[in-house]
């Protein structure tokens, strides 16, 4: 659900004097079937008569790729580090979903798959033909340990930086 009433300064459409309650109700109705926490790129066009057009796109490609790989975050060093794996079938299914997006509706599935391969690479996700569930489970367990170490190192760097600036 959306809670825009507490944050009106973040949204330019509220400076156009549109009905905030109607906007929130419309947005909530259109996103009622979406799981909370899913990022939804949204475009709002406000007309001069204070009406608006609301276009809600599919979640970003990186979101779908990370969900398919079963990971919560991408690699810190994408080219050198593999944080997840997906199959070609996953890639094809994501491309079919992304083809429904207005910016991509005129692109072929091949072009969308090429775009997804590049996005997967920047996220540190490897694309494979087949994936063994047990082997991938072991990979994710080891990956979880690596992520914890990376988080610890980042926290130490932040603390060291805070000490220098204080």
UniProtKB/TrEMBL annotation:
<dbReference type="InterPro" id="IPR000911">
    <property type="entry name" value="Ribosomal_uL11"/>
</dbReference>
<feature type="domain" description="Large ribosomal subunit protein uL11 C-terminal">
    <location>
        <begin position="58"/>
        <end position="127"/>
    </location>
</feature>
<feature type="domain" description="Large ribosomal subunit protein uL11 N-terminal">
    <location>
        <begin position="15"/>
        <end position="52"/>
    </location>
</feature>
<protein>
    <recommendedName>
        <fullName>Large ribosomal subunit protein uL11m</fullName>
    </recommendedName>
</protein>
<dbReference type="InterPro" id="IPR020784">
    <property type="entry name" value="Ribosomal_uL11_N"/>
</dbReference>
<keyword id="KW-0687">Ribonucleoprotein</keyword>
<comment type="subunit">
    <text>Component of the mitochondrial ribosome large subunit (39S) which comprises a 16S rRNA and about 50 distinct proteins.</text>
</comment>
<keyword id="KW-0689">Ribosomal protein</keyword>
<dbReference type="Pfam" id="PF00298">
    <property type="entry name" value="Ribosomal_L11"/>
</dbReference>
<dbReference type="GO" id="GO:0070180">
    <property type="term" value="F:large ribosomal subunit rRNA binding"/>
</dbReference>
<comment type="similarity">
    <text>Belongs to the universal ribosomal protein uL11 family.</text>
</comment>
<dbReference type="Pfam" id="PF03946">
    <property type="entry name" value="Ribosomal_L11_N"/>
</dbReference>
<dbReference type="InterPro" id="IPR020783">
    <property type="entry name" value="Ribosomal_uL11_C"/>
</dbReference>
<dbReference type="GO" id="GO:0006412">
    <property type="term" value="P:translation"/>
</dbReference>
<dbReference type="GO" id="GO:0003735">
    <property type="term" value="F:structural constituent of ribosome"/>
</dbReference>
<dbReference type="GO" id="GO:0005762">
    <property type="term" value="C:mitochondrial large ribosomal subunit"/>
</dbReference>
């Amino acid at each position: 659900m959306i809670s825009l009433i507490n944050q009106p300064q973040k949204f330019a459409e509220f400076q156009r004097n549109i009905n905030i309650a109607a906007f929130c109700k419309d947005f909530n109705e259109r996103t009622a079937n979406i799981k909370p926490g899913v990022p939804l790129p949204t475009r709002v066009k406000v007309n001069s008569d204070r009406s608006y057009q609301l276009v809600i796109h599919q979640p970003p490609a990186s979101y779908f790729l990370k969900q398919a790989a079963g990971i919560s975050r991408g690699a810190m060093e994408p080219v050198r580090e593999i944080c997840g794996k997906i199959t070609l079938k996953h890639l094809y299914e994501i491309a079919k979903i992304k083809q429904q997006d207005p910016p991509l509706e005129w692109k072929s599935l091949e072009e969308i798959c090429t775009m997804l391969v590049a996005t997967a690479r920047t996220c540190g996700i490897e694309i494979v033909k087949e994936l063994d569930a047990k082997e991938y489970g072991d990979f994710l367990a080891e990956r979880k340990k690596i992520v914890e170490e990376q988080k610890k190192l980042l926290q130490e760097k932040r603390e060291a930086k805070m000490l220098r600036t204080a």
